[in-house]
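Weekly structure sync, notes
Attendees: PL, DS, HV (note-taker this week)

Item 1: Vesicle transport protein GOT1A
DS walked through the input record. Source organism listed as Xyrichtys novacula. Sequence as pasted into the shared doc:
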Amino acid sequence: MTAVTEMQKIGMGLMGFGLFFLLFGVLLYFDTVLLAFGNILFLSGLMLIVGIMRTAHFFFQRHKFRGSFFFLGGVALVLFRWPIIGILVEAYGFMLLFRSFFPMAISFVLSTINLPFLNAMFSTSTSMV
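Item 1 (cont.): predicted structure, written out as tokens:
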């Protein structure tokens, strides 16, 4: 098991506050300041957890360029005070960036919940064996 460094602990706190401010900004009718602050905290927390070089490598891979463009463009739109359009563009970029992760996350959640009718509906043909 890997030990968590102090910088990673700070990064987790920043990401938590960033998600809180993003949620609170959406709940308060897309408040631009809260959304911008949440985006900045979330991205800085991500950089502290993963590292600056690994974060840059993740966002600037050739096959993830379109997702990164939309995600970071959405962050820029929020910072330039276009919150609704910025959040929509961010969400689309997030979907493009993590689309390969969603089937694995769904299968993990379904394996922990273990509801037979949902497992039959979302069953995947890949095996972890």
